[in-house]
């Protein structure tokens, strides 16, 4: 495990710098837009523009990776993202900003795709949950740091936009200079959502549901906090405790998902998230202590769901299909996020701030029910246990992958190597 983490250090450093810049940019644009007199609806539309670009990136960038490889794709889209960050300060106009946000979403879809498919290529089914958990911890920690950087200069000036651009540009250095071999070029690198769903329905559902729930949380939970009578300063604290709690639970959840069926981990998280959401809706406005405590509980069980879903999807992708799997997961997440960002605002407008977390609770409960239903469709054998992973050194020229049993087997005789009860990509379950 330790050697596996060390082997992706360059990618983790790049991710930390990159996501710190993106975290700062998202908060900065909301604050600057408010200072410029943009309406809340217009600011929400800018978020939707980001996710629109994200979806387009999921569709287009796999072809770039197939043509020029991971490193060149990362360099190209990071350069565009860095330029877009600076352009926000040059011309302050909502239409212009919407175009820039779409471009930024496009780029970050590609950047996430490169990083996640590369990291998945270095992982095995026996340690993937823990490795992706470390990646998510870096992601969340960098997001927190990025938000803290907002206090280093005035949001009405140029400095913070320049800082975002600098951070995105610096993320290029560890990727461009790494001696770690990039994943081999694939003959087929494109979206295949149907194949993803056939291979792992739960992973696909997890990607969509996290988009529906998390985009609503990030987009309009601030209105819930303010609508409950708390100060703007409490809004920042609320998000911070949710992020920190998620970072703390990532690694133990990743470890646990490596030794048991990941679907049961997702089931427990989804039900716990639904419960935390209902508690927030009914008790969050009673006191600041309750708000922050329940916010921490919500973050701890809600934000890690996508990481477990991504690990579950990667368990069933064949060697060389990491880009396709990552792109399909990100696309489903993006589609869910576009709908979730709008749904959160509509729910608050129609039923009030408390209804936001009722909506999120319904989404999570639905995911939990679906996970349970899938465990009933195909059960794991009683003696199916994942083997402990023993790290082995890899040379820059070679990569190892867990062996996969290509022989088609009837229900109940799944591959010993995959250690899951859902079919592998080349063992499609006709029941879906």
What do you see in this structure?
The structure is a single chain. With 432 residues, the protein is mostly helical. Helix content is 73%, strand content 0%. The chain is built from 16 helices and no strands. α9 packs across α10. The two termini are 33 Å apart. The relative contact order is 0.15. The C terminus is likely disordered.
Distance between the termini: 33 Å
Query: Segments where pLDDT lies below 50 for 5+ residues?
Result: 380-432
Query: Helix and strand string, N-terminal first?
Result: HHHHHHHHHHHHHHHH
What is the number of helices? Answer: 16
- The backbone outline, from C-alpha atoms, is globular
Specify the biggest β-sheet: none
